[in-house]
Amino acid sequence: MDFNNHYIRIGEDSLITHGFSDAFEQPEFGDILINEQGGRHFELFGEINPPLSTDDGIPLYKWNGKAVQKRTETEIDGDRAKIPSPPLDSLTILQLALAETLENETSTQAPIVRSLSTSPETSSVWAVSMMYKNLVDQKLRTVEQVPERFRGEINGC
Q1: Among 66, 69, 109, 126, which is most exposed with the fewest C-beta within 10 angstroms?
Q2: Rounded Cα–Cα distance for residues 136 and 133 (Å)
Q3: Positions of E strands within 11-139
Q4: Domain count, the chain
Q5: Rounded to two decimals, what is the model's pTM?
Q6: 53, 81, 109 — which closes off a domain?
Q7: Which of 87, 109, 91, 88 is nearest to 100 (CA)?
Q8: From edge to edge, which strands make up the β-sheet containing 32-38?
């Protein structure tokens, strides 16, 4: 019976970034042999070609120097917390501007903003550009920078 070698590739933090069988790929310098009698396809913990990372790219396994280990939910959640929020898109920025203006009852722009929110075909380019400029001036670029009271608006997009 013919066997294939199974390898893993790790990053500087010993997290597994790649797993493969030499039936399909040849190892590079630094790749770690974990199975000398494997099948044609890479296998880990009894699963053929398992996902090695979460949907958001966080590694699920680590190398402890002797063996592969599954990472704990705490470790994975810790890495997830380090992922920066994506920048807000233009629509979200405008929705935040609309929400802020509508919330401010004394705003002279409130009637314009109300017409923008109910009938976009009558929107004023000036009102939209002024609201966008205001948000740019305040540098509201990521979810963390958005005041808590507006975060529901983001989730509703």
Answers
A1: 66
A2: 5
A3: 16-21, 32-38, 43-44, 47-48, 61-63, 68-70
A4: 2
A5: 0.56
A6: 81
A7: 109
A8: 16-21, 4-10, 32-38
Alpha carbon distances (Å) from 58 to 6, 50, 123, 148: 22, 14, 43, 27
Domain of residue 57 covers: 4-81
Q: pLDDT, tens digit, for every residue of 26-71?
A: 999 999 999 999 999 999 999 999 999 999 899 999 999 999 999 9
77 and 40 co-located in one domain: yes
Residues 95 and 74 in one domain: no
Q: Are strands 32-38 and 43-44 parallel, antiparallel or unpaired?
A: unpaired
Q: Are 66 and 10 in contact (CB under 8 A)?
A: no
- Interhelix angle 90-103/110-118, rounded to 10 degrees, is 130
79-103 tens-digit pLDDT: 999 988 777 776 677 777 666 665 6
Two structure tokens written together for 135 = 């948000």
Taking the C-alpha atoms of residue 5 and residue 49, their distance in angstroms, rounded to an integer, is 14
Which residue has 């929400």 as its token pair?
99
